[in-house]
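Appendix B. Extra example for self-study. Work through it before the problem class; the solution is given directly after the inputs so you can check yourself.
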Amino acid sequence: MNQLQQRNRSLLIKLLAGAVLMFGFGFLLVPLYDVFCDITGLNGKLQNTGALTQEYAINDKRKVRVQFLAVNNESMPWRLDPQLAEISVHPGEMTQTAFMAFNPTNSNMVAQAIPSVAPSEAAPFLHKVNCFCFEQQPLAAGEKREMPLVFMVDDELPKYITTITLSYTLFDITPEPRPVSSVFTVPARSVL
Amino acid sequence: MGSLEQPVHSTGHHGPATGITRWLYTTNHKDIGTLYLLFSLMMFFIGGCMALTIRAELFQPGLQLVRPEFFNQMTTSHGLIMVFGAVMPAFVGLANWLIPMMIGAPDMALPRMNNWSFWILPFAFTMMLSTLLMEGGGPNFGWTFYAPLSTTYAPPSVTFFIFAVHMMGISSIMGAINVIATILNMRTPGMKLMDMPLFVWTWLITAFLLIAVMPVLAGVVTMMLMDIHFGTSFFDAAGGGDPVLFQHVFWFFGHPEVYIMILPAFGVVSEIIPTFARKRLFGYTSMVYATASIAILSFIVWAHHMFAVGMPLAGELFFMYSTMLIAVPTGVKVFNWVATMYRGSMTFETPMLFALAFVVLFTIGGFSGLMLAIAPADFQYHDTYFVVAHFHYVLVPGSVFSIMAAAYYWLPKWTGHMYNESMGKLHFWLSFIGVNVTFFPMHFLGLAGMPRRIPDYALQFADFNMVATFGAFLFGFSQLLFVYNIISCIRSGKKATDNVWEGSHGLEWTLSSPPPYHSFTEPPVFKHPYKDNG
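Solution. Structure tokens for the complete assembly:
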């Protein structure tokens, strides 16, 4: 029986190694997913962030509409509104705009905005030079602040895309979230 | 390896130990098989009671019996218990009982690990069921536990759920390793891989699937654990994670998992139909290759569960066509079963009735699966009762019927007594009618737009829901007949012969009924069941 036991043991070790390997593979799926999304540009995730690395010529003949949206994740009490709902830009032109953020609660909070671009094919051609979404944004109780955004649309953008929607979802990432109650009346959209 | 073989001094069989320790310490494949099967039966009834709670609440529109929070816990627990507690352990129990007897081995290859893999399960399920009594209730996020429902918005008991899943995973992986080691190393001399009974083949392939995907499930619940307690953001968009990633990783496990629950059923049916058709199985080789192709294809189709998450067209098309491709090997199997029966001299004992119902009703489930595979149509069916009807057709009259067929087919071998045939037939007909009355109307409900996992519904769905509830109670209570039949068979059935069935074939039927506690201590001489008699 010894020989059989040895064969069983070596098979056991191989199969256990297989199981451990697959456990690792499960975690490997996480970076693979990101790589896959980067390559295909799916998911509307932005890849071109930070200062521009090359010169881009301005194409005066073409105009692209860029729309701005901001939504709150569930239970996030802030107001985040774009200064302009829509801008028409020339490809290659550096444009600055801003969002207004307001913390209507009586506690200091920290937020993180997560951007997404639609259609997702446009994501690789939208360069964000500076954005409030690069960092966590703290706002004191009742504080209101302008959040800047500097961007540029690449002329390589496929011709059939005439409108790009840039939307932000605002998440509450205050450490140890405490119950928040609104003490300041949330002003109407037009006031912000 | 040059060492002396230990001479065997004991003569005759030494029987099992007595008392509770027999079951706690046992390393005997027959004892462990029995434990698995009884455990699965118990879980089948617990999960069944949850199903009846769901159906009772849905008997009429409006909220009558339970609160929506509890309803969600019922749908979730019902799914988890039936998948991990009833169907999977039942097949492992069948594997334990049958594989050594079918391949002429004295026991499983790793008997001590076998004891472990069973005894983890009762603890895992006690822990999971205990969460129902905890503050905040048990898991309420659906059996697929999508993040962030199962992370950010989960009840505090979710940590216990995660550890229960870890334990089930460890149990399944150990069971699978044991099955592979037994099949590859312990076959009687002369039995080649392509001589093995189809039940053994399907289990070999299933075991590889288990080793490949159970660790991925363990991985995904570990990521949940880290998101909940250790501040990572695998699935939390605020920290740069992505909830859709959860669905990808989950279904990378989940789709092979559904084949883990159906491939051994194919094996069971491929044993039973030739016996009662009194013909050899048609297309043995194609059956083996079809099983292997289904297993391989199962790794590249997972995203058909998530057509509605916003995949690009290329993704939708890829997963749509690859899913439809699975219908080819599955069709090969169905045609082979039909061809086996063609011009056979068939008799319709209870196991055969269940096997025939399996072929017909599983095929219906397969067809609704094809309908769901059509990506544009799936946008309409997604998350409706049509999906519920589909997977219950493949799991209840599919997997569960095959387990019942197997129980009736091998029960005389296991116990040495015949079960009550007329009671078995009655059980079959009540189950057959009950299953169809329960699940067929769900197709119509789903096509009409009734969403799944809701405790209350719009008035136009009332009639079909009432019908389904009647069917569910009929099906549920007729299972008591099954239990009664098993108990009376063990205690007082009439003596069974060694081959039990006229057309039975294979090594397990060469043993006495019941088989000795230690069987095949000497490897039996293998004669091919088909080749030797032309």
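Self-check: The mean pLDDT of chain A is 83. If your reasoning did not lead you there, revisit section 3.
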